[in-house]
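Hi there, hope your week has been kind to you so far. Do you reckon you could talk me through the fold, stretch by stretch? I've dropped the whole record in just underneath, so have a look:
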Amino acid sequence: MDNKNGLLEGVVVLDLTRVLAGPYCGALMADMGATVIKVENPKGGDDSRSMGPFINDNSVYFANFNRSKLGCTLNLKEPEAKEIFKEMVKKADVVLENYRPGTMEKLGLGYDVLKEVNPAIIYGAVSGFGHTGPLSKRAGYDIVGQAMGGLMSTTGWPGGQPTRVGTPMGDVLGGLNLTIGVLAALINRQKTGLGEKIDVALVDSVASAMENITMIYQATGRVPQRIGNRYESTYPYDSFPAKDGNVIIAAGNNKLYGILCDVMGQPELKTAPRFLEVRDRVANHEAMREIVSAWTQQHTIDEVDSLLNGAGCPACPVNTIDRMVVDPQIAGAREMFPEIDQPGIGKLHITAMAQKLTRTKSYPRKAAPLLGEDNLEIFGQFLGADQTQLDAWKAKGVI
């Protein structure tokens, strides 16, 4: 395995993004070997530098989503900074931004301008509502994406309030969709020599992920409601109480249901008319849940996990985070929590990206940059600037 180079070796990304959705895309590309240059406002930088949790007054949030990147500062409101950025665009492959639509245009740095500077530039933009439509100028955050995209309306327990998913899934989905679009544009550019603008909305990303929930309404006119951890289309496919927590049982078809019945010591349930087929178990899910819960409550989480998986029926713990980060599969074999040495923080376990590659490796290549840490290296490489030039730009508020 080539641990030094990555699949995106040689791809240069100018990352203007802040907080989560955009930085997630940049970190994913950087972990896969792209040269991702974090371009920040010299007055404070990325908003997430001030977001917790903190160690020694340094943001762990920022460190996680900006590892593997180089860092420079540019005050893009200054005319000279705009020209510097355009010079960088000439030598770059990708620009990422997550400003409110219209902001880059007001700065004179929108896609229409940058594609004249470099026709091959790939311009990736992620925003709350996208760059078209009556709501495009609205600010958008993860919770807005989850709410308007329909996810909150179907998350939670029957009779309860609409519930935000416990992690900022709208932002993560937006970051993933932005990455997919950028990578597709890179492939197309190999054939055409031309760049592309990728316009991703958090709301669209959530709406796209609703999949079969939306199709239930489209096909039947029924508005799906909050049903807890149960699944609309099959049962028992749910969480159940154990002695020391909760477990998932995913007996999604007749074969797996039969295995569950045998492990529970109740083979007669396989031929009970009210549970005979998937549709019967869905219709009688409350009675089915009582039966399965009575059995799971006699065992610990790990006992249920072992008994069912040993017999061939999918099951797993509902891991609390303290269990998950030491899980031998997730943390051990899959190396999902690698360690970096972050300036100001020290040794820090961050969260890896999910891609596991055969010939190369996706992994955190360096700590997140301090504000303006790589100014000399970056501006020297792109513009031939030296320290004297940097001092002059700093004095004028350009960097």
